[in-house]
Design brief:
Blueprint (H helix, E strand, L loop, with lengths): L1 H6 L19 H15 L1 H4 L7 E5 L1 H11 L19 E5 L12 H4 L7 H6 L13 E6 L8 H13 L3 E6 L10 H18 L3
């Protein structure tokens, strides 16, 4: 993805975050936010625009990308107190898990069973943080995804509509969950993402 976006005119930064075998929620979220702070801190060195940052990810990575985009004001998820360090301007989520509040989600990563701590599962759900200040979001999903239902994206679209946040949803028929990993859909997905970023990120 980074190489494809670079070919389409973007500076692309690959980041790493701790998975559930290394640390539980919200460690991975704080890792993504630390990456954004690094980008802003080093903007002049690498000729980045610190006010023009987008995030993209697929599946678990999409969950973190969306959560990164909508939760800059959530101090419990921020590595430091300055919320400006973590604001980004656009997000593209591919097959994104949006809402864990009904008990379906990555229990190992969240760290406690749903029945033991429903509030924690809600806190790990991007939909909980979508408000009028959320950045524009593009969601791309397979309409027959049997891992993360496309209805998750519909929930996000509904909430963003209620909040007046600009959003788009692209449904791809007859594609696997991780469609972006297949040549048949990769170029199409990157073209859609690049077009969205060009529309919503400043030069």
């Amino acid at each position: 993805m980074a190489a494809a976006l670079a070919l389409r005119g973007f500076a692309a930064v690959c980041i790493e975050y701790r998975a559930s075998d290394e640390a539980i929620f919200p460690a991975a979220v704080k890792d993504t936010k630390s990456a954004v702070k690094w980008i802003k801190t080093n903007a002049s060195k690498y000729n980045f625009n610190p006010s023009s940052i987008g995030a993209i990810g697929g599946s678990a990575g999409a969950h973190l990308a969306i959560l990164l985009g909508v939760s800059s004001k959530a101090q419990s998820l921020n590595p430091t107190e300055n919320t400006e360090d973590f604001k980004i301007q656009a997000v593209v989520g591919l097959a994104t898990p949006i809402d864990f509040s009904h008990g379906k989600g990555p229990a190992k990563w969240i760290g406690e069973p749903y029945t033991a701590n429903k509030d924690l599962w809600k806190a790990a759900s991007p939909i909980s943080y979508i408000d009028e200040d959320s950045p524009p979001i593009l969601l791309i999903h397979s309409s027959n995804d049997n891992v993360v239902s496309y209805k998750q994206s519909l929930l996000a679209m509904e909430k963003m509509g209620e909040m007046g946040v600009y959003s788009q949803l692209v449904l791809i028929p007859d594609a696997p969950h991780a469609f972006w990993n297949f040549e048949e859909w990769f170029g199409y997905t990157m073209d859609k993402a690049a077009s969205f970023f060009k529309e919503h990120l400043k030069n």
